[in-house]
Design a protein that fits this description.
Elements: H1 3-20, H2 25-38, H3 44-49, H4 61-73, H5 77-85, H6 101-111, H7 116-124, H8 136-151, E1 156-157, H9 158-172, E2 178-184, H10 185-188, E3 193-194, E4 196-203, H11 206-216, E5 218-224, E6 227-231, E7 237-243, H12 248-256, H13 259-269, H14 277-283, H15 298-301, E8 316-320, H16 331-340, E9 345-351, H17 363-376, E10 384-392, H18 403-406, E11 411-415, H19 424-436, E12 442-443, H20 461-471, E13 474-478, H21 488-496, E14 501-504, H22 515-525, H23 539-554
Parallel strand pairs: 4-7, 8-9, 9-10, 10-11, 11-12, 12-13, 13-14
Antiparallel strand pairs: 1-3, 2-4, 5-6, 6-7
Helix pairs in contact: 1-2, 1-5, 1-6, 7-8, 12-14, 19-20, 20-21
Bound molecules: zinc ion (ZN) (2 copies).
Length: 555
């Protein structure tokens, strides 16, 4: 067993303990041990042999003994026992929103419910409502949740696909017979929602590699001598394509897709093979196309290639929350984190007064927030700080603060946070009116969608884009992987009308600056280059622009 397999076994024990134990204490010990083992940079066997295992932070007596047994025998009697106590499909109920291990354990113990089908049947028969703490409302919620789980079956957000793919690549790197491995498929194309992870493996010994794959994923199924699929521990399906090194590039291109793009490509390029993808493009006299831009046959026809924006192009950002509204970190913490990321500037924007559920700021609260920003400015030099707000667009299209208050900001992000179900024409008018407010700098998360859980509201997009261009309001690319809003498919239409964009993290904690990475993926997928993104500009230019715009608005 290697460290990943050991960590996986520890995690599984933790899950069973959470099903069965009234307090989380024991489960936490195993979770902590699993994390400690995955993070090891020393060989696990050395660690045990040298006696240092029990001195490793996160490893206790109990967990240490299980780890030793796993390394010695490849099994844990404790885990085997736990597995015997529960039906094999019990964890599939985790896919229902709001269902945690505690609830699942309770339903199993009290009602014998052991999988998704039984959960649905029990809810329909009204049996859940008989349990303490479950009531009719909870029962209906679970029923809706089952339906949702079925609808979103085997669909995942992009970061889950990337993490899974990278983790598996790391483990493949340790297999001697493997010369190279790359992620392909929709993850490589950076599609926002994915169904599986595809990995191309260069090897001259496919049979041995397939043997090795059995230890890396669950339920490995061999389709033919060069294709196999299995399931990662987070339930994502993983496909492996084995290729001799001299054909690696061809298989990478073919499995990256999309199907439409690949067949158009092969039509032009013919059935050549190559070790490198770039060689296939060169041989076919087609300028190289980034994987993000390989969706349709049209992507192949574009004569001029644009160089796509990169994370390193972003010099600063906007749309960052603090503890003054619903953020988890203070002004100083958010600013320090921005400086640590080597951003030159950052724009703080807490919620406005109508968003009371998100701690929206009254004019009074705003004064305090702005005073705190002034206080912290010197501490985070040379970072330049811009004062802003994420102001609600009210149902009638007005902005949540009056002109006098709006004039105190360097920038204003206007966002819809209420009444999503408005008819299309009303929603369009609401947005157009918001765009007419001269203080508005950015339009926040265009449709309010939450991927895999909530559709966005509808509007006449082209009218909104036209007005945004006319008024010089930029449209945000919200990088939160659950939002990625504006949808990349719409960007071309906005761009054609002259709209410019900002890549924003909508960060509610220091960790969420990572959304700049996913935001950049979305911008690349949309075909944008650095010059169309406001926050790639140098700080002086940004400051000057915002100053000028505010001056015009206040007049
Ligand atoms: Zn928002
Ligand atoms: Zn926000």
């Amino acid at each position: 067993m290697d460290k990943w397999e050991v960590a996986r076994a520890l995690d599984e024990i933790a899950k069973y303990l959470e099903l069965s134990e009234p307090n989380r204490f024991k489960a936490l010990a195993f979770e902590r041990a699993a994390r400690a083992i995955s993070a090891l940079d020393r060989d696990l066997r050395d660690l045990v042999a040298s006696g240092d295992l029990h001195k490793t932070p996160g490893i206790g007596d109990r967990t240490g003994a299980v780890i030793e047994e796993l390394l010695r025998s490849g099994r844990s009697r404790y885990l085997d026992e736990l597995r015997k106590q529960y039906p094999p499909a019990i964890f599939e109920m985790l896919r229902v929103p709001g269902m945690g291990l505690k609830k699942i354990g309770l339903l199993y113990q009290k009602l014998g419910i052991s999988n998704l089908d039984e959960l649905e049947a029990a809810a329909r028969a009204g049996r859940l409502a008989t349990l303490r703490g479950f009531g009719a409302k909870t029962q209906q919620k679970i029923l809706d949740g089952v339906e949702k789980a079925r609808r979103h079956e085997s669909r995942f957000l992009l970061p889950a696909g990337i993490d899974t793919g990278e983790l598996i690549r790391q483990r493949l790197a340790a297999v001697n017979e493997i010369e190279n491995a790359e992620i392909s498929g929709s993850v490589r194309r950076r599609l926002e929602v994915i169904r599986n992870v595809n990995i191309v493996v260069a090897t001259r010994q496919p049979r041995r590699v397939i043997k090795a794959l059995e230890k890396i994923v669950d339920r490995l199924e061999v389709i033919d001598e060069s294709t196999a699929k299995g399931v990662a521990s987070n339930q994502i399906e993983v496909w492996f394509y084995l290729a001799p090194p001299e054909q690696f590039g061809s298989v990478l291109l073919r499995t990256t897709g999309s199907d439409e793009f690949v067949s158009a490509f092969l039509e032009r390029a013919g059935k050549r093979t190559a070790a490198k993808e770039e060689d296939l493009f060169r041989l076919a006299r087609i300028p190289y196309i980034d994987p993000e831009r390989r969706e349709t046959a049209d992507d192949l026809r574009l004569k001029k290639r644009r160089s796509l924006v990169e994370l390193a192009d972003l010099r600063g950002t906007f749309h960052v929350h603090t503890t003054f509204s619903d953020g988890r970190h203070t002004v100083l913490e958010m600013l320090t984190a921005a400086r640590d990321r080597e951003l030159e500037y950052v724009g703080l924007s807490d919620h406005s007064k109508t968003a009371y559920y998100a701690g929206g700021l009254t004019v009074e609260g705003l004064r305090e927030q702005q005073a705190e920003i002034e206080r912290q400015r010197p501490a985070v030099k040379p970072l330049r700080v811009f004062k802003g707000t994420e102001a609600d667009i009210l149902p009638d299209g007005s902005i949540d603060y009056d002109a006098e208050t709006l004039a105190t900001f360097d920038f204003v992000i206007a966002s819809v946070h209420s009444k999503f179900a408005m008819p299309k024409d009303e929603m369009t008018e609401r947005l157009l009116r918001a765009l007419d407010n001269p203080f508005v700098t950015f339009l926040g998360h265009l449709t309010g969608r939450l991927l895999l859980s909530r559709d966005g509201y509808t509007m006449e997009f082209d009218r909104v884009f036209e007005r945004a261009a006319e008024r010089g309001v930029m449209i945000e690319i919200n990088g939160n992987p659950r939002r990625l809003d504006i949808d990349w498919r719409l960007v071309g239409r906005a761009l054609d009308r002259g709209v410019r964009f900002g890549i924003h993290p909508d960060a509610h904690s220091i960790h969420e600056y990572a959304a700049l990475i996913s935001g950049t993926w979305a911008a690349r997928k949309a075909g944008l280059s650095a010059k169309e993104i406001f926050n790639t500009k140098p700080v002086e230019e940004v400051a000057e622009y915002l100053e000028r715009r505010r001056g015009q608005a206040a007049r």
